[in-house]
Amino acid sequence: RALLTLVERAIGARGGGSLYIETSSRQAYVRTRRFYRGAGYAQVARLRDYYARGDHKVMFCKTIPARR
Known about the structure:
It contains two helices and three strands. The relative contact order is 0.29. The chain is elongated, with a radius of gyration of 13 Å. Helix content is 31%, strand content 43%. It has a three-stranded antiparallel β-sheet with strand order 1-3-2. The chain is of the alpha+beta class. Strand 2 (42-52) and strand 3 form a beta hairpin.
């Protein structure tokens, strides 16, 4: 969480923008997807069978506002 916060602050300091994060749809990544949702990221895409049959790429995005 601390690393993600640092990245978001750096993006904000550079004018802001959209930050995209990807992970797997496998059961082993349930906590990872929950973490991103809890950090304010919204699921924006799901690419079916991306990594392997039944293992989809799940993409999240968060808009980071510019900081002054």
